[in-house]
Amino acid sequence: MVDYKKPSEADLIEGLRNGDRDAFTFIYKEYWFRMYSVAQRKLQNSALAEELIQDIFTRLWKERETIRISQLDFYLFSAVRYEVIDQIRAAGRQQTYAEYYKTFSSFEELNTENTVAFNDLVQMIDKGLEILPAKSREIFRLNRFQHFAVGQIASQLGLSEKAVEYHLTKATKSIRTYLKEILISLLVIASAFLY
Predict the structure, then answer these.
(1) Which whole-number Å values give the CA distances from 7 to 14, 22, 31, 130, in the listed order?
(2) Structural domain 109-195, CATH architecture
């Protein structure tokens, strides 16, 4: 009788890094369903969750030589978390911006000029968010675009509610300052064309 023992995590990581398909297959079989379950529960969309997990494993194989992994569990479930957040953010951002735009343009017909202005506004907000530290940016987006409560964000990110409130205050001030500076710049440019 052959005694097969489960490879150690270090052996799996090293095997993956060296292109060992057996190590990759073992990791895939060990983690796929659990990762899929987390993504599906958060996204409430089986097909999207499955695609997301397949993308993570495809990227894992393609980037195996350069990825720095110390713990498989932490690395893989962090990847799921960030992919889910990106999916929610992308879907929510489109919907939220559209809702804001409808509110402000309820008396106007949606035409090419309005669409261009809307796209410019979206780009300005996104650029303003880019200057924030990653944690503040993530918290701001979860709160303002996904409508997560402070408690939900704290629970999801493993932070205290005070820390979340700090990041929100800091991010809101930063975005306001950024948009104010953009507006002033646009007014200066517009006034230069008038005279």
Answers:
(1) 11, 11, 14, 42
(2) Orthogonal Bundle (1.10)
Q: Supply φ then ψ for residue 33, to 5 degrees.
A: -65, -40
CATH number of 7-104: 1.10.1740.10
What integer pLDDT is reported at residue 28 of this predicted model?
Answer: 93
Q: What is the pLDDT of residue 82?
A: 86
Per-residue pLDDT of 147-167, as tens digits, reads: 888 889 998 889 999 999 998
**Structural element, H or E, at residue 124:** helix 112-130
Cα–Cα distances in Å, from 151 out to 104, 130, 147, 163?
A: 30, 24, 11, 11
Considering only residues 110 and 193, tell me which one the structure prediction assigns the higher pLDDT: 193
Going from N- to C-terminal start, the domains of the chain cover 7-104, 109-195
